[in-house]
């Protein structure tokens, strides 16, 4: 449905306000809440033209902006997005048997609207 370039993702230029806030938090602080970090990676997989491109993009953004980028744990986190250290799930388009995360699931398990407000406030206050 949506396909974004690496440049669009890096600029937080997607249709998804939750994802954009997560990307902006990462760029401005080097940090992202762990649940948002999972969602962030899963959406890159969903919005990329191939899994290989998604992996390269996720690793590039992870290593460029996260404070723990290039750390072995960080590489494992990226691999998890693509199914490493996880069980198989019901097969679906784009993902195959890799775990899927949706904005609806995010809304059920977290408070992403409050997260967006918090990130925007933090960025605004930092100038």
TrEMBL record:
Its EC number is 4.1.99.3. GO terms for molecular function: deoxyribodipyrimidine photo-lyase activity; DNA binding. Gene3D superfamilies: DNA Cyclobutane Dipyrimidine Photolyase, subunit A, domain 3. Its cofactor is FAD. One of its GO terms (biological process) is photoreactive repair. PANTHER family: DEOXYRIBODIPYRIMIDINE PHOTO-LYASE, DEOXYRIBODIPYRIMIDINE PHOTOLYASE. This is Deoxyribodipyrimidine photo-lyase. It comes from uncultured Rubrobacteraceae bacterium.
């Amino acid at each position: 449905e949506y396909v974004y370039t690496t440049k669009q993702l890096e600029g937080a230029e997607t249709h998804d306000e939750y994802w954009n806030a997560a990307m902006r938090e990462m760029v401005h602080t080097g940090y992202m809440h762990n649940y948002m970090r999972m969602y962030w990676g899963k959406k890159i997989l969903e919005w990329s033209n191939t899994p290989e491109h998604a992996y390269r993009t996720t690793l590039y953004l992870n290593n460029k902006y996260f404070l723990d980028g290039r750390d072995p744990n960080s590489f494992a986190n990226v691999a998890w997005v693509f199914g490493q250290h996880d069980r198989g799930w019901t097969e679906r388009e784009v993902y195959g048997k890799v775990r899927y995360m949706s904005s609806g699931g995010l809304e059920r398990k977290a408070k992403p609207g409050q997260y967006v407000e918090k990130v925007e406030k933090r960025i605004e206050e930092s100038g």
